[in-house]
Design a protein that fits this description.
This protein is an alpha/beta fold. Helix content is about 35%, strand content about 20%. Strand 9 (about 275-280) and strand 10 (about 280-290) form a beta hairpin. The protein starts with 15 loop residues before the first strand and ends in an 8-residue tail after the last strand.
Length: about 525
């Protein structure tokens, strides 16, 4: 059994520091401050070169250990003289240190090879990734973080000023050391997690590790009594809401980011010019076409009542004309790949309007979604399945037209971004009515009919799951809907098909469900 040591909580004096960093931001200034306060500096490679360039006295670690850097720098700091100098307990291991000519190292300043940046490169393969796995750095960091009673560790250049300020008094407080120790353990844990997730050969592996960096604090969460912050994947520079350029407007809230992310996910379904209007995570208006202004107007007017205070997303450059149309109504956010300069000038009239430039984006790629539950998380693949004509099976006496099939495929792309139970009515590549988040399917049908009003005539109706009863078909019998698209698979499928035949409505099975909870 390991003997329980006493933890030194007194301030410590920095006599010797080891500086070895990949990111050299601020390290020269820190070293100058340490040198001015009489601190001896050990260093390695590029860090030592940077310090010598400005005439700061430095001792190479290889000169201290009497062992050269070897194997292209792979082995340089893993040495008893280094690790012993960091790990040794000053009140217990003094004799060992003296017998082995180990000098105490009181401060370790270290950050690691940029593994995240490496694996984001298009030419990265396993060999290149592994070559950029830092070994000595994490060892020094963890050693210093462990020996928090006697050693201070710094992994973030933003914390250098803390050391410089406290070095003026000649001592580093225990609370400072403890805070920086916790940050260091988090730094190496995150680093190892990124490596683990890259090297493993399956997404839903036996163990799951997640790591994120804080992106921003928020005023509150979904409601004012809930605290919240956003976190992003380290090294992820892909087009998304957290990486967007915010041209203007109030700070993004929790709900803003959730809705904007949903709008971006939906707009990425389409190749041609498209516009999506999202309210409370549901696509209340979507349209595609050739002219972006016409597309925006159709999407907004599909449900202008719900669009009030919503999110507007497009997959084309936002033009001056579209900006003029948007500023005539109240919306919270506009997002697009980019904006014409004239459009940005027009948006300035609405100073609270958030304008997000996402950058050029493509269709969604397979990834993992994570949802919290008490005691753990649920993980699943993102639904990126593309439905084609070949997936559709006509099950009724009436055959749908080619135009109706195209509209059905359009509607399915939108429907899978609506909360279940979900029913979508669409016509002419424009949404007409949406019933989302209902506890019964027939309720969702009635909601979609009510939203669409007279415009549902001549449209198609898509359901995200099968109809358990014929009541939903009975509900649309006099609506003028021409085609129903649904997964099929109910024990009462034939009953539902018979209802469609009775009302001369075409029906197609997709064989695929698109629930979204």
């Amino acid at each position: 059994m390991i003997e329980k040591p006493a933890l030194n909580q007194a301030p410590i004096k920095i006599n010797r520091a080891l500086l070895s960093v990949f990111d050299k931001t601020g390290v020269v200034e820190l070293a100058q401050s340490l040198h001015q306060h009489g601190v001896e500096i050990l260093s390695t490679g590029g860090t030592a070169k940077a310090l010598r360039y400005v005439d700061i006295p430095v001792t190479d670690v290889s000169d201290y250990t009497k062992f050269p850097e070897i194997m292209d720098g792979r082995v340089k700091t893993i040495n008893p003289l280094v690790e012993g100098g960091i790990l040794g307990l000053r009140d217990k291991h003094g004799a060992d240190a003296e017998a082995n000519e180990i000098k105490w190292i009181d401060l370790v300043v270290c950050n690691l090879y940029p593994f995240s940046e490496t694996i984001s490169r298009k030419d990265c393969d396993l060999a290149l990734a592994l070559e950029n796995v830092d070994i000595g750095g994490p060892t020094m960091i963890r050693s210093a973080a462990k020996n928090v009673g006697w050693v201070c560790v710094v992994v973030d250049p933003a914390d250098y000023n803390i050391i410089s300020d406290e070095a003026v008094s000649g001592e580093i407080a225990f609370e400072t050391r403890r805070r920086l120790s916790a940050k260091a353990f988090g730094h190496t844990a995150q680093y190892d997690t990124i490596i683990h997730n890259y090297v493993k050969d399956e997404d839903l592996s036996h163990d799951l590790s997640l790591t994120f960096l804080k992106h921003s604090e928020m005023r509150y969460g979904e409601n004012p009594h809930q605290s919240a912050a956003s976190y992003k994947i380290p090294g992820n520079n892909e087009p998304n809401i957290l990486n967007a350029t915010v041209h203007q407007g109030k700070k993004l809230s929790y709900n803003n980011i959730m809705d904007a992310d949903g709008a971006l996910a939906c707009i990425r379904e389409f190749d041609g010019p498209a516009c999506v209007v999202v309210k409370h995570a549901n696509p209340c208006g979507v349209a595609t076409g050739d002219d972006l202004l016409d597309v925006y107007n159709r999407a907004f007017n599909a449900d202008s009542l719900s669009a009030f205070g919503g999110i507007i997303a497009s997959n084309r450059t936002c033009t001056k004309d579209v900006a003029e149309a948007i500023t005539s109504v109240f919306v919270e956010i506009v997002l697009a790949p980019d904006f014409e300069p004239e459009a940005l000038e027009i948006f300035k009239k609405k100073k609270n309007l958030r304008v997000l430039e996402i950058g050029q984006f493509d269709k969604r790629t397979p990834s993992l979604e994570v949802r919290n539950v008490d005691g753990g998380v649920l993980v699943q693949e993102t639904d990126t399945k593309i439905l084609t004509k070949e997936d559709l099976n006509v099950v009724t006496e009436k055959e749908p037209s080619e135009a109706d099939i195209e509209t059905a495929l359009f509607g399915w792309k939108v429907l899978r971004h609506a909360k279940s139970n979900g029913i979508l009515i669409a016509k002419n590549n424009t949404t007409v009515g949406l019933g989302a988040g209902q506890v019964s399917r027939v309720d969702a049908v009635h909601m979609a009919l009510r939203k669409g009003g007279e415009n549902v005539a001549g449209g198609i109706l898509a359901s995200d799951a099968f109809f358990p009863f014929r009541d939903s078909i009975d509900a649309i019998r006099n609506s003028g809907i021409l085609l129903v698209v649904q997964p099929g698979g109910s024990v009462r499928d034939q009953e539902v098909i018979d209802a469609c035949n009775e009302y001369s409505i075409a029906m197609m099975f997709t064989g695929t469900r698109c629930f979204k909870h």
